Amino acid sequence: MATNEPEHENRDAEEAGANEDEDTGAQVAPIVRLEEVAVTTGEEDEDAVLDLKSKLYRFDKEANQWKERGGGTVKLLKHKDTGKIRLVMRQSKTLKICANHFVKQGMSVQEHVGNEKSCVWHARDFADGELKDELFCIRFASIENCKSFMQKFNEVSESEVEKEESKDASEAAGLLEKLTVEETKTEEKTVEKVKTEVEADEKKKSEAEKADEEKKTEESGPST
């Protein structure tokens, strides 16, 4: 018995091929249009004087152990106007801030005991939105990077001491200059006062002598 199934299959294949070749000319517009947004990091007015990949830890006093803050890039950034230098570290994937504090006089970084690739330091940190006393430990991939970080950090701290000493010297010089000016003004006032008093005495003396002469003249006048 003959069957028509093969004919139906051929006809369906031809119709499917015709539909695939057909171009409707329709264009699909995007549902949401995204605008370009300028992203700011807060580092636009600063220049990086150090930029190294590392992993940061903070010491948890309550748990009495080191806890990881994240891995990323640690930077020392110098402000273009003020010259102040701060340490900033962000996590590599989320860009969340791990550390954010100024490098000030008196701060120092030291090698972590037993690990030449790590070093530690204390800081008043603002990474969590409020100032906190933190003990940080940072670990680098190489001993060279760790030494570079320590050297630059300590150089900045020492330069801040020199700036503070220079500032103190300038302030002292300013006070001394002000004191000298005030002393000069006081001396001028004293000289002027003495001069005025001498002139007043001379005027009184002259008036007294004139009065005596007039009195003598009256007494020695002709009698009637």
Unreliable spans are: 1-9
What does the average pLDDT come to? Answer: 80
Q: Characterize the largest beta sheet: strand count, sense, and whether it forms a barrel.
A: 7 strands, antiparallel
**Count, helices:** 2
Written account of the structure:
By secondary structure, the protein is α+β, with helices and mostly antiparallel strands. It is 42% helix and 27% strand. The protein is built from 2 helices and 7 strands. Strands 4-3-2-1-7-6-5 form a 7-stranded antiparallel beta sheet. The N and C termini lie far apart (192 Å). The model is unreliable at 1-9 (pLDDT under 50).
Helix-strand layout with pairing:
Layout: H1 5-21, E1 46-60, E2 65-79, E3 85-91, E4 97-102, E5 110-111, E6 118-125, E7 132-139, H2 143-219
Antiparallel strand pairs: 1-2, 1-7, 2-3, 3-4, 5-6, 6-7
Defining traits:
single chain, 224 residues, alpha+beta, seven-stranded antiparallel sheet, 2 helices, 27% strand, elongated
